[in-house]
Amino acid sequence: MINYKNPTGENVKQPAENILKKEPFRMENLPRDWRNQIQDSIVNAKQLSAYFPIDMKQIETVTEKYPMRITPHYLSLIRQKEDPFWRQSIPCVEEIENDSGKEDPLHEERQSPVPNLIHRYPDRILFMVSDQCAMHCRYCMRKRKTGNPFFVTHDTIETGIAYIKNNSKIRDVILSGGDPLMLEDKKLEHILKQVHRIRHVELIRIHTRIPCVWPQRITRKLAEIIRRYHPVYVNTHFNHPGEISTESEKACSILADAGIPLGCQTVLLRGVNDSLPVMRRLMKKLIRIRVKPYYLHHPDSVRGTAHFRVSLKTGLRIMKGLHGHISGLCIPRYMIDLPHGGGKVPLQPEYIEEYSSKKLTLRNFRGSLFHYPEA
Ligand SMILES: *Cc1c(COP(=O)(O)O)cnc(C)c1O
Ligand code: SF4
Q: Which domain holds residue 128?
């Protein structure tokens, strides 16, 4: 039996095999003070049923294919069935019943010269350095991988680093996954150090959802490590203003105080943030915790995530409601990722009504028309 505290502070006993079943974590490799955090995560229907009335059978069928992992911290955000936090974390039968979309619509696997590294743009690469996540977000665009540990090994890391070394055009290295901050400090530092040493690499980015789903992982020690390899930009991932808890705010200030510029990549998701008031609150709250909204991603056509899809029209309407109405610092760029690995393209609501050789006719954020002379 394993004793642990549930999110409301009660002591709970669970048979160890419940917790370790289908458990991708290699427990023995985790630092001691992490284990409780990891062990407290909800990974099966039985554990979840202690908190919410759920259809265990249904959840089990979904988790056979797409595993579940919810940190106590994230679980504590859920207020009711189908709320934005529930939708993002609790398996839903539509994941297996609606199989529209593709496993890998962006052809990441075909643009992968060495395992776990995607080279789509000439000057930057995305390097998956961890096969673990603190939470399995139900809408994950890399569901094909995060659902099945894809075995980041010592070899895939070293091969990736060698690839970067041998390609002098690569200036910008994005550490992603899974979640890079699931790596122990020592392993993360090893990677940062190796990459930082490469002369042509000018910039390292870390893409992580940890400040949102497991903010306690962001320690001063971690920030101290990261800052040694500056410039390192950390792109966080918040999708709803309710996710910006006191703990997340603290995590972000630890990073910001270490001089680490913070961005946020939000995914537009049905039933989570596909509304203007929610999106405004999220963007305003982000800049208050010194996180600059970077991208608002239109959801990709990934199998198992159809119930999160929204129309481009909705996305553009939301963007129109941001531009001009709230501080320009609050405004992310709205991006679609083209199928077949075409890359990202920004979308903008239309402001130009007419374009002639003499003048532009434009509509401002209040809807009034203005003429602007062409040079
Ligand atoms: C999004 C992405 C990048 C980074 O794109 P930026 O627009 O520079 O943030 C790099 N590689 C891959 C494969 C990507 O999907
Ligand atoms: S943390 Fe990122 S990679 Fe992991 S499941 Fe969530 S969205 Fe996917």
A: 109-347
Our answer on whether the CB atom of 282 is closer than 6 Å to any ligand 1 atom is no
* Cα–Cα dist 320/315, whole Å: 9
Burial class of residue 51 in the structure, from the number of CB atoms within 10 Å of its CB (0-12 exposed, 13-18 middle, 19+ buried):
middle
Residue 232 and residue 140 share a domain: yes
Is residue 252 annotated as part of the catalytic site, yes or no? no
Please name the helix (run of DSSP H) or strand (run of DSSP E) that holds residue 145, with its range, or none. Answer: helix 143-146
Q: Does 359 reside within a domain?
A: no
Do residues 93 and 70 share a domain?
Answer: yes
pLDDT tens digits, one per residue of 251-281: 999 999 999 999 999 999 999 999 999 999 9
Q: Which of 66, 92, 133, 145 is catalytic?
A: 133
State the distance from the centre of ligand 1 to the C-alpha of 126, rounded, in angstroms: 7
Contact present, 43 and 68 (Cβ < 8 Å): yes
The domain that holds 254 is classified in CATH as 3.20.20.70
User: Any idea which ligand is nearest the CA of 235?
Assistant: 1
> pLDDT tens, 330-371?
999 999 999 999 999 999 999 999 999 999 999 999 999 999
